[in-house]
Structure formats: structure tokens, C-alpha cells
Amino acid sequence: MRLQVEARLRLGTFAIDAAFGSQAGVTALFGRSGSGKTSLVNIIAGLLRPDHGRIMLDGDVIADSKRRLFTPAHRRRFGYVFQEARLFPHLSVRGNLGYGRWFAGATGSGEEFGRIVAMLGIGHLLDRMPATLSGGERQRVAIGRALLAAPRLLLMDEPLAALDDARKAEILPYLERLRDETRIPIVYVSHSVAEVARLAERVVVMENGRVKASGKTAAVLSAPSPTYETDRRDAGALIVGVVESHDEGHELTNVRAGECLIRVPHLIAEQGQSLRLYVAGRDVMLATRRPEDISALNVLPGRIVSLSPPRQGSVDVRVDCGGNVIAARITTLSREALDLQPGKQVHAIIKTVALDY
Amino acid sequence: MDLLALTEAEWTAVRLSLRVATVAMLASLPFALLVSMILARGQFWGKSLLNGLVHMPLILPPVVTGFALLLLFGRRGPVGAFLAENFGLVFSFRWTGAALACAVMGFPLMVRSIRLSIEAVDRKLEDAAATLGASPAWIFLTVTLPLILPGILAGMVLSFAKAMGEFGATITFVSNIPGETQTLSAAIYTFTQVPGGDAGAMRLAAISVIISMAALMLSEAMAAAAARRTVAA
């Protein structure tokens, strides 16, 4: 599966001029609000017509302005999960789920229906009307509705943005299952580093309607000088680990990443499942000696790799902790007080609750 | 003689009125739907002109509308002569003419109601339907139409109620012929013009009050349902 997008579109004073390619798995379109992510996804879906551009999926030309070719949205078979669920208010959950399925010629068997309903945990909602569902339930139904239309590609425009943290935590595992259990490529729009880090294999960073950077998630998000200026506040590093065990009594999940064992809140993911954690630099403390009697559960010994030039009174310190590079944001005052230099042995301290999503 | 019992002639007027109003309502529905869609969604030069034209019967004195119909749809009128020759459809001094007059008078009410409900539809739902594989025609049938159905029903009820009460345009266009064009309102008018007609006028007036009230209440209930259902989830 390979998606190639090139599009130029002028919308009033704002212009989109972007090109990117994506492979199977999740590709995140990442950038602050107003950077043109949603417009770009609408162009891919066929809801917006670009002035110039070309969209190809697996060598199949979906739209090409040079050849005056434009496949209308309803013939593209691109699933779309919107920021608001956009469920049809006059149809029950079952009717909503069946809508796209019917237009797809109901190719999927009843087995497919049952499998997707089970994966999203919406079996008990089938006879309810959308108005009676919670935000998280609506969004799960919307995802199911898009999947049951048997899409060739799934577009998701900030599907979690309208939800509170508890609902986000409720839906994220379903999105991870979706990524791992279906073979449908996903273009996932988000402005949240944490979401992108957890879900996406590749990231396309958008700024002012243009592609600023793109590449593997770990490389883009952990780059020493963040290529994305989106939110310096959110700058940090990505850790890839495997779920090793659960502490059911305390509702914690232990994630093994290299030599480190990191405790993450909530009982998330199955044992053995690979998990990506995004650790924001502002959530990491550094200590030159191992602290004792401290509530933070993750104290990782490591060695300083590099220090960024100071910006607005703070520096980003990159620490290699048993094969994982963690970024810590500290003040220049702390750097001087602790005399932090590349090569120095330190302990990186991460509060477990800071790793909540 | 029982004060509440209607005479045969009075019954004829009631039945005729119901038939005229029903035909007027059903015949104008497709046109109203089309015009509402154009006014709600279209962007074209002359849109306000069309809007004004649709609303004319609401503002003009009904006699003027009736006179205009007489000129256009009368035996010698350009449209009337054409329809009579090609389709055998004659309006002048027939109950069909009464239905036409009622349809024209109720048209702006029906269009207003349907147009408002179309404008209340969240177009994002139609986009969502498109991404699920529905063509524009299917989107209209499966999303737009169900969502505006309460508005359509409310518009039909209003048009029906207007037709039941229509007097000026009808009597100008097709006169007041018992059994052919004498609707409820015309019959009441006739009763008030003859000595001792008060009892008959009263009975018919009571019937018209009941029918109009029922129609209005039904319309209100449907408008409320429309407001509830077009809110996107």
C-alpha cells in the first residue's frame, strides 16, 4: 500500500502546497491547528478539490489535475473518521454501521461485522440512537462505520480532539488494535505529540500549509533540534518498549525498554505487545546522585549525550539510559548548579503519572 | 331541525374543500421541494428575484393573485390555452382551478417551511455520507430527505390549512359555483349574504375552525420534531 499526495490549493489568504508519501501502517499528519492538516485530508478524501495536484494509491490515479481527472468522494472508498463523530441522527447505531457497508455492496460477511463490532466494543450499543451515546461511544461507532465500508485507506482527522482525557484513554487502545489487526493504511491527523508518538510509524510535519519534515516517528520526534516548532513545550523523546507485566493491585503496566523498566499508569495493552511512549522533556528531572525516598517510580541511570544551546532560559539535555535516549528540559541555572556536561553520569527521573495519555 | 346537522349542500362544500386542499397540497409539493432546494443551496444570479416571486402570493392582495391566475390560466390565457389543448387540463370555473389557486396561495408557506429545514441540515453529515460511498442522489434520499421530513410535513400541513381558508384568489379565479368551485369559505360567504343563513354559516365556521386548529397544532408538533432531529450527533 502506497499513497502519494501532491496538492496545491488557495483558500483565501491561506495556501496549501504539500506533497508526501505514505506506506502501510499509520502516517501522522502533525502540526498546530491552522497548519492545513484538515484541508489536506479533505483533499485526499475528495471533499475539497485542489487547484493543482495528484493523488495516487498503489499506482491507481485517484485525482490528477493535469489529466483533469477527479474521482468524486463516494467512488474513492476512503474511510473518514471526523473530529466530531458525524453519526446520522435519524439512524440507530446499527443503521449507522450498516450505511457504508450497504454502499460497499455488503461484501463483508456478517462475520466481518461481528469482528469489527467486537474489536470496538460497541456490541451493546447497536439498538441505541446516536443522541443517547457518550462522546467516546460515538467516536467508536464512527470508526466502525468507516471500517465497515471496506475502505482502501482510512483517514482520521483528530478523532480524539473533542474528547476529554478519560475518553481518549478509552479509545486509544482501540486505535492501536485497529493499526495492528487490520491491514488498512491510516492517515492520522493530530496536533498531539503523545498521540502521534503512540500510534504513528511515520510523521509528516505540517506548517503553514507546507510539509516541514517527514520521516520515521522516532527520528522526527526525537531529533536533537526539534524539526517541528509546533509546541516547544511538548518537545521530548520517544521510547519504544514491550509490555512485560502488569501490577494489577496498583493498576500499573511495566514496560521493558532496553535495560530500563518503565512503569506506566493504567493496565494498558497485552503482555508482549510493543508500546511507544512519549516522554515530554518538561516531565523529566535530572539528579547527579540516585535519589532516595522519592515518589517518582521511574529512576533511570544514564549518561549525558548532549546539551542543546539555551533557549528562553532552558536547555534540553539528552541522556542515554540503557539504550534509550531521553530528553530532559531543565533551566540553565540547574545546568550550572549540577555542572552538567556531555559524558556525565546522571539519573533521569520520570513520574509515572506524567506518562498518562 | 337539528342545529348541528349539515345539509347536503353544506356537506358538498366541506367535501369539496377537503378535496381541493388535498390536491393543492400534494400537487405543489414536488415544486416546493425543488424551489426550496434551489433557494437553500443554490448560488446564482436572480436568486432574490426567485425568492420574491415565490413570496408574492403572501404579500399581494388575494384578488390580484386570482386576477393574475385568470389572465394566465383562463381559457384564453397563454398557459391555460396551452394546457387545455395539449393535456385537456381546464382550470377556469372548475374545481381544478380552485385547487390551483389554493396551491399558489399556499406555496410560499410550504417553501418557507421546507427551506428552513434544509438550511438546518448539517452539511457535514452529507460529506460523511459521501465518504461512505453514497452518491449525491443517494445522499439526498438517505440523509437529507429523512432529516427534512418533519419540515416537509409541517409545510404540507400549512399549505393544507391555507387552502382550507383560501377565499379571495379562488373566488376571483373560478367564481362561486355550488358543487364545483364553492369551497367552505365561499359557502360561508354565500350564507352570510342571504337572510336566515346565519345557522349554516355558523356550522361551517365551526368546522373550519376545527380543521384549521388541528392542522396548525400538527404543524407545530412536526416543527418541534424537526428541530430535535436535525441536530447532529
Automatic annotation (TrEMBL), chain A:
Gene3D superfamilies: 2.40.50.100, P-loop containing nucleotide triphosphate hydrolases. The keyword Cell membrane applies. Residues 293-357 form the Mop domain. Residues 1-233 form the ABC transporter domain. Its EC number is 3.6.3.29. InterPro entries: AAA+_ATPase, ABC_transporter-like_ATP-bd, ABC_transporter-like_CS, Mo/tungstate-bd_C_term_dom, ModC_ABC_ATP-bd, Molybdenum_import_ModC, Mop_domain, P-loop_NTPase. It holds the Pfam family TOBE. GO terms for molecular function: ABC-type transporter activity; ATP binding; ATP hydrolysis activity; molybdate ion transmembrane transporter activity. It is an enzyme of class 3 (hydrolase). Keywords: ATP-binding, Cell inner membrane, Cell membrane, Hydrolase, Membrane, Molybdenum, Nucleotide-binding, Translocase, Transport. GO terms for cellular component: membrane. It comes from the Bacteria. Belongs to the ABC transporter superfamily. This is Molybdate transporter subunit ATP-binding component of ABC superfamily. The lineage of its organism: Bacteria, Pseudomonadati, Pseudomonadota, Alphaproteobacteria, Hyphomicrobiales. The gene is modC.
TrEMBL record, chain B:
Residues 14-222 form the ABC transmembrane type-1 domain. The chain crosses the membrane at residues 20-40, 52-73, 93-111, 132-158, 204-227. It is found in: Cell inner membrane; Cell membrane. Belongs to the binding-protein-dependent transport system permease family. CysTW subfamily. PANTHER family: MOLYBDENUM TRANSPORT SYSTEM PERMEASE PROTEIN MODB (PTHR30183:SF3). Part of the binding-protein-dependent transport system for molybdenum; probably responsible for the translocation of the substrate across the membrane. This is Molybdenum transport system permease. The gene is modB.
